[in-house]
Here is the input.
Amino acid sequence: MQKKALLIIPVLIAVALIVSGCGEKAAEKAIEKATNSQVDIDADNDRVTINTNGGSYQAGEGVSVPDGFPEDVYVVDGNVTAAFTYEVDKNYSISIESTKSVNELKTLYEQKLADDGWTITMSYAAEGSVTLAATKGENRSVSVGLNNNEDANGAIVVITTMTEDATNEE
Here is the structure.
């Protein structure tokens, strides 16, 4: 199921970006065909919401951290601009605009992950960006992507949590 969730994320994001150009009903039909599930899209001037029988995606104004987001994953203060929930496996992804720098956030997330019992398994830094990955137990993982946001003089934080179903054979 994790592979399916990872494949659905880009589809939902792409549809959210084009929904204003082709109309909600056409986008709903395209997603329904691609995912073989019921889809409802609600778009207004400031926010797009996509609901399927497996999860949901929101982007734009007034987005918040989804209900059920793991309490042991730190969420930095800032403007949540997108949120994805894959309810079947309780997987989440959120995007936040922060006023902190990438370096401040790297230090903060390394400390918060350790404090919350996560084991950092990977840390990668490139110019203007950092990626951290961590695990907890045998079936939980989190990744934190940090990228410079020159437009807002801060950083974009993307947090993705995954819980692997122990019975999943895919």
About this structure: Confidence is low (pLDDT under 50) at residues 1-7. Residues 55 and 62 are 19 Å apart (CA to CA). The longest strand covers residues 140-149. Residues 2-163 form one domain.
